[in-house]
Structure formats: structure tokens, C-alpha cells
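Look over both lines before class:
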Amino acid sequence: MEIKAILDEKNALELDFGDVDQSLVQLLAEKLNSEKDVEFAACKVDHPILGSPRLLVRMKKGDPKKLVLSKLEEIRKEVVDFKDKFVAMAK
């Protein structure tokens, strides 16, 4: 997975996720929008077949990169918790 920064400013960030499925980017945008300091977060795909998902984040205050990292860690923990519960259920 190659992630490219399209825009990297004090209060704004735009990342291109290349060939990643847009589901992860949609989930990340949803998590970001739950934060009070986020003005706007969205997943954008220019073309449903040919386009790559982009994450757009604009903050009222704070560092968008730090918040993205924090939300990715939150998603990682949720996935691990789900996996553990599923494995326990499947036994």
C-alpha cells in the first residue's frame, strides 16, 4: 500500500490511498468526523472503477496527521477486539 500526501498544511490534509479499498478510508473519515475539532472529513473517489480513494481532512484546530494516526490506532484496536471475540465464539 502506497499512501501519498496530496495536501499537507497546518490544518488540512489530503491523502491518496492508491489501490486500497475505499471501505477503510470511509471508516476513517467517519471516525474523524466524530471529533469536535474536525471541521470536515470525507472519502472521495473520482471514478468508481479507476479512481483511488482520497481522505480529505480539515481541522478547526489541531494537527490532522496526529488525529489520523490516533483514529487508525482506534480502528486497529476495534479490529483486534472483534477478532478475539470471533475466535472465542468460533471455538
